[in-house]
Amino acid sequence: MDGTARLWTTIAAERTAFADLLDTLTPAQWATPSLCPAWTVHAVVAHLVSAQDAGVGAKLAAAVRGRGVPSRVTEVLAEQYAVRSAAELVSRFRALADARFAPPGMGPRAPLTDVMVHRLDVAVPLGLVVDRPPDAWGPVLDFLVSRTPMLGVLRRGFPQATYRATDLGWQHGSGPEVHGPAAALGSVLAGRPALAGWLGGPGVDAVRTWVEA
Q1: Where are the beta strands (DSSP E) in the chain?
Q2: What is the pTM (predicted TM-score) of this model?
Q3: Which of 166-172's residues contact partners 24+ apart within 8 Å by CB, and which partners?
Q4: Residue 128 phi, psi (nearest 5)
Q5: Are 16 and 8 in contact (CB under 8 A)?
Q6: Cα separations (Å) of 97 from 47, 71, 101?
Q7: pLDDT tens across the length of the chain (213 residues)
Q8: Is the dihedral of CA 12, 3, 187, 77 positive or negative?
Q9: Dihedral sign, CA of 106, 170, 205, 119?
Q10: Cβ neighbours of 129 (radius 10 Å)
Q11: Residues 134, 167: contact at Cβ < 8 Å?
Q12: CA of 57: how far to CAs of 54, 100, 110, 151, in Å?
């Protein structure tokens, strides 16, 4: 199995695991604000489903409504799917586990990043533990430090540091070290401050200031 095929296999496994988690949520949990600004848990799942399920016509129409602004286009598609019930969304998300759409030029690391980061967007505010092997975070961290536009925003350049995952053989950059679990690094590098407290090292204060700005 080549590297690309392996990534798609990982994506399918992580989507299925996420769907399993979503099946356990109560209506109140579905209505809880996520770590993703302005989105509830329900809206996050609607986004994940819409990204893979919406056809070319629907995406073109969303691009028109969103005036071509990537973050707004993403919101328009999510809004269209958010009218579906939680059960419908989970069922469709599970059915799309093997879907292979990726934004042009980005490859499978983009949808893998989507599912990995957004799962934490859901789990962290609900106080849920995500018990998954950390290996899937390697390609996600590589993607995040590439500073490719993703997750609805163009991320600001993060502080120069040596970023090191303590549960994975992954390291990037140079300068004062910032270390922690791969999931925490991924969430913070994606612009979420909630797990910044899980990070340590001499460069962590600069990273916390950056992500909380």
Answers
A1: 162-165, 170-173, 177-180
A2: 0.93
A3: 167/134, 168/134, 168/135, 168/137, 168/138, 168/141, 169/138, 170/137, 170/138, 170/141, 170/142, 172/141, 172/142, 172/145
A4: -95, 140
A5: no
A6: 14, 23, 11
A7: 688 999 999 999 999 999 999 999 999 999 999 999 889 999 999 999 999 998 777 777 777 776 767 778 888 889 999 999 999 999 999 999 999 998 888 899 999 999 999 999 999 999 999 999 999 999 999 999 987 766 444 456 889 999 999 999 999 999 999 999 999 999 999 999 999 999 999 999 999 999 998
A8: negative
A9: positive
A10: 8
A11: yes
A12: 8, 18, 21, 21
Rounded distance between C-alpha atoms, residue 188 and residue 107, angstroms: 22
What single-letter amino acid sits at 114? D
Using CA atoms, how far apart are residues 93 and 34, in angstroms rounded to an integer? 18
**Residues belonging to the chain:** 213
Under a CB-based contact definition with an 8 Å cutoff, are residues 32 and 40 in contact? yes
Largest CA-CA distance found in the chain, in angstroms, rounded: 49
The rounded distance, in Å, linking the Cα atoms of 140 and 181 is 13
If we measure between CA atoms, which residue out of 16, 195, 209, 50 comes closest to residue 123?
195
Sort strands 177-180 and 162-165 into parallel, antiparallel or unpaired. Answer: parallel
